[in-house]
Amino acid sequence: MxxxxxxxxxxxxxxxxxxTNAAYLAEKIAxxxxxxxxxxxxxxxxxxxxxxxxxALSRSDIVILSGGLGPTKxxxxxxxxxxxxxxxxxxxxxxxxxxxxxxxxxxxxxxxxSNNWKQAxxxxxxxxxxxxxxxxxxxxxxxxxxRIAILLPGPPNEIKPMFERDIAPxxxxxxxxxxxxxxxxxxxxxxxxxxxxxxxxMDAQTNPTLAPYAKTGEVHxxxxxxxxxEETANALMxxxxxxxxxxxxxxIYTTEEEVTLEEAVVALLKEKQMTVTTAESCTGGLLAxxxxxxxxxxxxxxxxxxxxxxxxxxxLLGVSPGTLEMYGAVxxxxxxxxxxxxxxxxxxxxALSVTGIxxxxxxxxxxxxxxxxxxxxxxxKVRTERFLFTGNREKNRDYAVVRxxxxxxxxxxxx
Length: 415
Hints:
Elements: E1 2-8, H1 10-13, H2 20-31, E2 35-42, H3 46-59, E3 62-66, H4 77-85, E4 89-91, H5 93-106, E5 121-123, E6 127-129, E7 138-142, E8 148-152, H6 156-173, E9 178-186, H7 191-197, H8 199-203, E10 209-215, E11 218-227, H9 230-248, E12 252-254, H10 261-271, E13 276-280, H11 286-292, E14 305-306, H12 310-317, H13 321-327, H14 332-346, E15 350-356, E16 371-378, E17 381-388, H15 393-413
Parallel strand pairs: 1-2, 1-3, 3-8, 13-14, 13-15
Antiparallel strand pairs: 4-5, 6-7, 7-8, 9-11, 9-12, 10-11, 15-16, 16-17
């Protein structure tokens, strides 16, 4: 089956927002084993939107539209799609009740404005998909030729849970065989090396299949099986996953789709009943932020330090002036003393430090832009690593954070 994506919103065409919904939906559709040959974006214009929908329905089995389901006059997706399908709009009592409950729950001081009830109007005969994170429901329409339109809200925090909860299972049911997958996430190894390690598996793949995805400082492998049910699919995927464990060992930090590297590290810290702190220079708090993004991180992280200047490194972390003078702020020696000092100051079992030259300026022949040292102190034992990244400032900082988390994980699993 073929799926076409239409992203709705003039703000997308003007470049005011990044169209993350299309990237998200395209990846999810591929995982489901559906083909996507066309994607488009259309503004909040009735005529052009109608043309886009009719064209998509003429060449694809399913059209997924994201955005344009809000309460304002320029939110036209539902109205235009209903017109294309020859359906009139009728009020859905269930959706109206959900909208009322939503505003009662958030205690909006402005109350419910009349245009909010626009979201309770749905095309006659459409399947209504409840929105558990907003007021605009999703909708599924089917025409006499069996072509399907799926309308989803635009906000990412609404579209993603709705797709996972309702739309993905719906699409899976449309296929004679379901598509099931698991993600094997690997750190501590580069993309090229990782792909070389599994080259023979990819050459020989039939069912299940194996596909690599390069992430910042990580490599993810998606194992996908086609089967009549999830139990059969899991039986097909298990030998492949076992082989990946055989080849990558403890470099695999999870086989759960939603688990991040920082979540895996925080889980390890909790398991070992340890605390961690951070001392950052060029990353300026990014590392601490990644850790604190994890729910429950407060059980393992109490305080951290941003020490951009040499004076701050001396004052807050106890880095020796002699070390800074002899080796410089960007050095293994400074990284080591930063990690030791942070662990001591925070009374933490573990500490990570990052010092480097993120760019775009500040580099020299001896210490070029992208040079980063990461220090890790665990129970008084210090390890440092040198990295030379080749991206822009943002990329260099992101890579430094991932390498720091990876270094801590490596030390923790050795305990």
